Amino acid sequence: MTRKLLPALTAVLTAVSVLAACSSPAEEPPPEAVIPPPAGLIEDGYLTYGTAASFPPFESKENGEPVGFDIDMGNKIADYLGLRTRVLDIDFDGLVPALQGGRVDIINSAMYINEERAAVVDYVPYMKIGESLIGNTDKKIAVKELPKDLSGKTVAVTRGAIGETYMNDFNQQLKAAGLPPMEVMALPNNQDALLAVQSGRADLFDTSTPGAAHTIAKSGDRFEVVNTFALDTQIGIAVPKNKPQLKAAMQQAVQRFIDSGQYDELLTKYNLPTDSKLSQ
């Protein structure tokens, strides 16, 4: 009997720990819905989303709590649907599997839209974005011509992010031109990739244009942008392909968010360029 009761007790204690971590005694009820919430959410009354909280200014952690543009946007969208939010911090390359496996309702993590991802998930775009290569200022690495000037260099990227795809594509171009490839150092998150550059293990770090601006603003003169490219890319909220009602609700909520003026307030709050705004 003891062996049967212990797993049940463990499950109860685990459930209590999860609830304690996700809720607060003073939690206020959400606003009244202005957009009907979709059916089939993982948990009634909540919009559960996955994010890789290592990509400021979109998502990061302060004192253990998720913060950033996407986090604020997620709260606004949930308000329109009359829902609270649950945020799961997941390594970037685990986000799509988490969505497909039913762990999260959506991915809200500055996810770049490309053909490979669009084949397995649907998207609701919300911002235009580009890519930047940043390096240590004191090394003065010149990257004027892509991909030629990356030949033989080591470039750190976030594993599973669009930067890894771009660098692998550049390597194919280098190979076709008969030039030595770069080493693509794929690391779990942005902080690890940036640390690789800071420590000298990598020459450059590929990140988003807003991410690069945020990094440089926070680090003084330690880093500099050496090149920008792919400036017409979009990022979006990812939803499962088999949930059209959820996608429609996200589209309505994102449009309302953009039209409300709150979008512009968050662009200012997080020092994002105004030309990042995407008109739906």
From TrEMBL:
Residues 1-20 form the signal peptide. The keyword Cell inner membrane does not apply. InterPro entries: SBP_3_CS, Solute-binding_3/MltF_N. The keyword Ribonucleoprotein does not apply. It is found in: Cell envelope. Belongs to the bacterial solute-binding protein 3 family. Residues 46-274 form the Solute-binding protein family 3/N-terminal domain. This is Glutamine-binding periplasmic protein. Keywords: Signal. It comes from Mycolicibacterium mageritense. GO terms for cellular component: cell envelope.
